[in-house]
Amino acid sequence: MTATEVRAPLVARTVPYLPLGLIAALGATLAYVVRLPCRTGGWNDQVTTYTNFCYTDIYPLYFDRELATQNPYFADVPFDKQVEYPVVLGEVMQVISWISRWLELDKVAQAVRFYDLTVILLGISLVIGVLLMAAVAGPTRRWDALWYAISPAVVLAAYINWDLVAGALSMGMLLAWGRRRQVLAGVLLGLAIATKFYPLMFVGALFLLTLRTARWRPFLVTMGSAAGAWVLVNAPFMIFAWDGWRRFYVFSEERGVDWGSPWLFFQNKGWPVLGDGDVSTLGMAALALLCLGIAVLTLAAPRRPRLAQICFLALAAFMMTNKVWSPQFVLWLVPFAVLARPNWKPLALWQLAEMWYFAAIWLYLLNQPPLSRNDLGIGDDTYFTAVWGRVITIGIMMAFVVRDILRPGKDLVRQGGVDDQAGGVFDDARDRFTLASVLR
């Protein structure tokens, strides 16, 4: 900003975001309404929970992880009953359980209070995430954040788990990087990884664009800050509660194929290799191949891709090759999918697929032991249409993003005169290394 430029007052800069904040608050409220059948007692009966599509992890984990009596990671419980989340989420659960115990004496009442307070935190996280996403998108694409604020899949999945906390931290990281505040971006990235593991995929996206532009100092500062923040919040638990701390990592490594994953289809149908091989190895190999393809694309594209495009491709690759693909994982992808390619048609198609999967998983569980209610539920083949619906629609969006990278003139964001709205030091940066330069 030059000496002759006058920055607009804070109020003037804030007003354009007010409607988005209010709509996000409406989305958070609708998400609460969706789960009212459970909130009023339905979660004590599995059939009622599934037929009303209102399942949440928040209420049952209060009992199952002994939050009513003990602290996460330090709890004197069997290893498989330790909190299976990274430490930031574990401590969020801890603080809210303390407040719930202080407000209520009865354990059931505490669990209900624990749910309500957690929902308030998650609703605030959604509003913050939407506002941060709007700031990342910039004034020309600010309203794209509506997809995150109130899209049906977000409303349906918002309060299944604690994912919205990681979403707010991830959007904060992206905004800080875009504003060239590398230390803050690194701290938020480290905290995001210590909340949910998926933001680790953004490290690869930053590295590839750094390799192409040779902007190494900002990258190294960000990575150092991220590592420092991660160590700072993890070290006390690693030192004083090793078994509780490592529960998340052991659980992630040893967990078998679970709901939503394409690997479950291969196992169910008895496919050779894909259905009877070591899924951990197969999944890592598939992810490595996709990441190699993303790397080649990033370094071979005629114009440097935008950061949001590479983040989306990396995150989508991670989800599609993972051993589990829970309904709430849609919350990870929505903001990055929209920032990567804000075209409403493929986004709407994907949202329909996510809504179908959200309904299908609960109907499928009704038909599984111990309930085995085939009069209410659906069978394998119907369920797997929902699994593949998500894979195919996300694959379509990935294909369009790849096309936009190879043909930058098709990129809707860049048609607005923007190079990279979240790129920070990458914005308008010159190429220093590409595959074409190596092959000359």
Automatic annotation (TrEMBL):
Q: What topology does it adopt in the membrane?
A: Multi-pass membrane protein
* Keywords linked to the UniProt accession: Cell membrane, Membrane, Transferase, Transmembrane, Transmembrane helix
Record's keyword annotation contains Glycoprotein: no
Cite the Pfam families for this sequence.
GT87
Top-level division of the source organism's lineage? Bacteria
Family affiliation: Belongs to the glycosyltransferase 87 family.
- Protein name per Swiss-Prot or TrEMBL: Glycosyltransferase 87 family protein
Taxonomy, top ranks, is:
Bacteria, Bacillati, Actinomycetota, Actinomycetes, Streptosporangiales
